[in-house]
Write a structure and sequence with these properties.
The complex is a heterodimer of chains A (219) and B (475). By secondary structure, chain A is mainly α. Chain A contains 7 helices and no strands. In chain A, helix 1 runs parallel beside helix 5 (126-145) and helix 4 (94-118) packs antiparallel against helix 5. Chain B has a domain at 267-475. Chain B has helices at residues 4-18, 21-43, 59-85, 91-110, 114-132, 138-171, 180-185, 192-210, 218-225, 228-255, 259-282, 287-308, 311-341, 352-355, 357-370, 377-391, 395-421, 434-452, 456-467. The longest helix of chain B has 34 residues, at 138-171. Chain B is globular. The chains are: A mainly alpha (219), B mainly alpha (475).
Chain lengths: 219, 475
Amino acid sequence: MSVFSDALLALTLLSVLMSLAAHRLVALVKIMAFQGIVVSLIPLFLENLHAMTMGSILMLQVMILIKGFFIPGFIYVAERKIKIRREIEPIVGYHASLFAGLLFILISVFIADRIYASQSLPGEHVLLMITAITTLASGLFLLMSRHKAITQVIGYLMMENGIYLFGTALAKQTHTQYLVEFGVLLDLLVGIMIMGIVLNNINSSFDDVDTALLGQLKD
Amino acid sequence: MLEFTCLIPLFTGIIAMFLPVKFGRGILVVTALLHLQITIMAWLGKITPGLPQYFSASPEGLLVLLVASFIFLFISIYAVSYMSVTEITSEPIYIGCTLFFLSSMSMVALADHLIVLWIAIEATTLMSAPLIFLHRSKSALEATWKYVMICSVGIALALLGCFFIVLSMDIGNVQVPITFSGLGAVATQLDPMWLKAGFIFLVIGYGTKMGLAPMHTWLPDAHSEAPSPASALLSGALLNCAFLGVYRSHRLLYQAGLGDFSSNILIGLGLLSMLMAAIFIFNQTGYKRMLAYSSIENMGIIAFGVGIGGLATYGAMLHLIHHSLIKSSLFLSAGNVLLGYGSKLISKTGNMAKVFPKTFTAFFAGFAGISGFPPFGIFVSELLIIMGAFQQGRTIEVSIFILALILIFAGASRLVMKMSFGKWDEEILVDENWTRVLPSYALLLTSVILCVWLPDSLYQTILSAIATIGGSVNG
């Protein structure tokens, strides 16, 4: 665990907290792009640099490209078309969300400590585990606490980032198969694209992307 | 190369997207035929996987693949006729996505690598989403949004489950490829705590996709809003694929000696799904929603049967085949009803026996089949599950199971009677047509035939699929 990876993890945590407090959607997308790049860089500093193969370097670049540019770019374009600038009335207010984010960090410190104390886990990535749990929980929180469908997509993305970090924290790097990892990324990318298309359609038939409007189908 | 079952629909799907509609419909049927042929060749053991580190021809996978391929053929014949009488704004996209959907489902059936299975199941969600919002109505959009969001989030949790299982492997200091077959061989050396945690996440994730309560909320919406051929595919083929994910995880736990833990979870979720379906089916207003809740019920039955083990597992596998056949036939008939009456509401339909005799025969027979009447196969499968549960001494569970079956039959039969014999004196919009009725008949007939005569290769495949979790026909 180097100083660099600690710094990157701290940046990830910061981006999580910023996204919970972000009012403007454009700012939120920028934060997500930043988070995507930082998260993809983390494995670079966990591994021994000399042990890196051609495949892992290529994968790193693809990941940065997709998580840092393609996906945020796609959400940005969708946002432009929808012409929504900000989340007006979130279900949970911004200050409360920020507070919730801090709570998540506390809880994940507790959980990660317990996990590492009771198990003989490979490596000693406690901070990585803390960041992963916080990102995952905050993503789910964002998904549930916002009305606009586009913020929910961002919440999903953050959750995915959290799960990815979990994967890097838990699994030994020797398991990595680039074809498989690429498949996961591709699914994520296509998923976001389809969500974007549905979003556009929702916007044109409801004149808004408020999920409170999506309540006709029920029993 | 077994991977052709995924590759062929993928390529023909891409081609169909760029061709005029007329060719596209032809491609749909031709691909279905080709796919069935390759599947049968795989059954005969003529082709083997080209990438054995990711794919394998497991018996349960072959079973699901055959069921999917078989009903896809009939659904594609129906779809061609269905598309010619409805207005679909972007038909090439519909045809393309149907083929991509088939491709991703085949990938699920063949996947052996934990994460490849995850990728394939997520891909089924993504490829079927365009099918649901084809009509672009407000309710269809809502259904699609719920489907994509709920399933994506659920399946994301399943990825976490995969990582937990990889971790259990690292803690146990085992070095095998991350495949179900590889892990199964060394299951006892895996760390039990993380294996259990992984199983819970996998069941939540794939259970969402399978429609197990309480994660089922997307299912009635998606099944009722999708065009009928797509609903038939979702219910008849997709749910089985998701079940495959749950089944393989359960098998891993069984092999690790934690079978009791995972069985109880499956039995609990199964019963909960059945009860939930019983409650919601009772006052249902839409007939497609009614069928969707019935799918939730049947997935519950399958989960219950697998959880019980022994003879019930055999029953569950039979149930999977017959549910797919009968339920897709029912959804196809429901498509005819929707074309004829122009409404999804039960109150806007009636007197089907008089005005829609051919569809009525299929719909009513299908209903009798899904309720468990002979000569349809569900009669046998449910009987086997109940007998299996008694053999295992699960008296309380089986009484809840039977109660839920009775409630669902009571609730649904009231609605079906209203549709079949209720009052109706208005014009029919689109008359029924043999090409839209025969596929339903064929699917029902298959269920009847399989009930009285099960081909030996099918029987042996089911046995070898369930042997690894202690299932057998001798209890």
